[in-house]
Amino acid sequence: MQVYLVGGAVRDTLLERPVTERDYVVVGATPAEMLAKGFTQVGKDFPVFLHPKTGEEYALARIERKSGAGYTGFVCDASSSVTLEEDLKRRDLTVNAMALDDDGNIIDPYKGQQDIENRCLRHVSAAFSEDPLRVFRVARFATRYRYLGFTIAPETLTLMQSMANSGELRALSAERVWQETKRSLLEATPDVFFTVLAESQALTSWFSELGEHLTEALACLTLAASPLSVSSEEASHDKDTQLAVRFSALCSPLNPTQVSQLCSRLKVPNQVSDLARLLSQFKQHLLTDFSATDSVNEAASALLNIFNGADAWRRPERFSLLLTAMTPLAKRSHLDWPAQTTLIQRALSAANDVNVQDIIATGIKGPAIKQALNDAKCSAIAQAM
User: Fold this and answer.
1) 137 appears as a binding residue in the annotation
2) Minimum mean pLDDT among 47-51, 70-74, 247-251, 366-370: which range?
3) Which of the residues 123, 143, 197, 365 has an alpha carbon 20 to 30 A from that of 185?
């Protein structure tokens, strides 16, 4: 039995990047031997085991044969006769097909070190085309390592185009595509992910709505991801918030129907999809320069409609996030967004100060209360402006 550190840990060590997780491959062992050593088996399709002390993953060396459509259509052979080189050959990219033994020696049968030196993402073998998810994985790796100058080998890009044109990308699950998308959106240059998909002719499989809007969508996404485009407070947002803002920026050129279609297809989480839909619905209204309007009352009425439509009363944090997500669009429109945001927040605060109990105390009853409340809020907004 021989154990090797494999994959991303070896790659990122060579790139002098932090290693966040370690995966191991075990050659010459059987499931029974692993269980006897105290490992816990977790893999059903192929034998993967958790170390009894560290909890790290140890997988038996395996080879796979394509047996059906999609990324699950494989028959796995994880017998003790499978060699390390055979296991590494089934991996996606040469930079991910290296192993490290206990003595610190790198086993690199497919020239991954050379491709790291040349900053090249290259597929290991023709078996790459058997797993359609790899098109999205390569796009994600291109995104993550763009800052180091990595590009995709021409022959790999050609293979990705062939895979996209085969139609098999549509056999992927929405959850897997979204995970690759999510991880890419949180990288420093998320636009690269969608540029690669476009170059691979893979964009239409899952992101058809972007199509003719791609240039504008990526410009907004780039602004949303730029550290120069957000305040220090916005930059400190957690990853869930960053994801929602960046996805909304990507969807910003789309109409509400297109946003809903895209979110439904990708099964985008509610927190993310809600913000994208709100931005699509209210972007033009929020880009109105309320400080330059001829009629304060009309501006107040317009703001009240936005507050009501976006449910700013009960969801103030979401509304605040909507204003943050609008920043890239405002920059492209050359609107003084900080001043606009200050005006909107002042108007919302004034409207929130209106007390419905004061209106009821005047004797107004029934359905008339709602209209009187709106009138009072509109008046308060106008005064605040």
Assistant:
1) yes
2) 70-74
3) 123
